[in-house]
Protein: ABC transporter ATP-binding protein
Organism: Gandjariella thermophila
Amino acid sequence: MIELDDFSYAYPTGSRPALRSLRLAVPAGQLCGVVGPSGAGKSTFAHALAGFIPHALGGETAGRVVVGGRTVADTPLPDLVRDVGLVLQNPFNQISGVKFTVREELAFGLENLGVPQEEMVRRVDAVLAELRIEGLADRSPYQLSGGQQQLVALGSVLVMRPSVLVLDEPTSQLDPVGSGQVFDAVRALHRAGVTIVLVEHKLERLAEIADRVLVLRHGEVALDGPPATVLADP
Ligand code: ADP
Ligand code: ADP
């Protein structure tokens, strides 16, 4: 589902590459966790999968990232948004803020794509049910807890029905209750067969839900294996 073919990347202002010759494949349905120290390239990796690199951020790439059969660098960002959904640390980087209710917020991206009203309602209802936030549908995103807000941000990505879901430290700004809500949702999506890349600061947390863990260090894959193997590594 995801393939990195000797992929390297340097930011326009970066003195050294943020990602170096990454070669890896994530099969459909896998939940692949990504850990590593600060500055290791985790966030850059997430943005490369979602096409923000190179499309929005520029810089120098070498090699290829292929998602769902499409080469990211050759696919316009608006098309990629349907293939790859990216959830960020702060839900408010994702929530438009101009909408009054959660339901309207979830419909926003579909409206922009010109999805017919009937289908839009169907998709929004499906995602509300899937994330178990039907009860929040008519509330303002501003009146919700951090965890609930992150679920709304996740929902705004899921309405696009991406084949791959990338989450960049989605719980780093949440309390334990909020983190639990988001992790439960990720677990459910994994059970439903969605391919997931989850960047997370804490390996122990990741080990509870991931099929596989990539450890990045200095933009390279330092370790790659099942959580138990990675946990056992000194
Ligand atoms: P992590 O998410 O693991 O903390 P990042 O992907 O954010 O790591 O950063 C990887 C490297 O790229 C770091 O050296 C960081 O300083 C650099 N970097 C991150 N974002 C930018 C940027 N917008 N411009 C230049 N360098 C960046
Ligand atoms: P369709 O009827 O549109 O073919 P699919 O069931 O094949 O729907 O799924 C299409 C996409 O919808 C999947 O690639 C996935 O990203 C998303 N999807 C499927 N099941 C779920 C789910 N349980 N939660 C979130 N998204 C899902």
About this structure: The longest helix spans residues 176-191. The mean pLDDT is 93. Residues 175 and 183 are 12 Å apart (CA to CA).
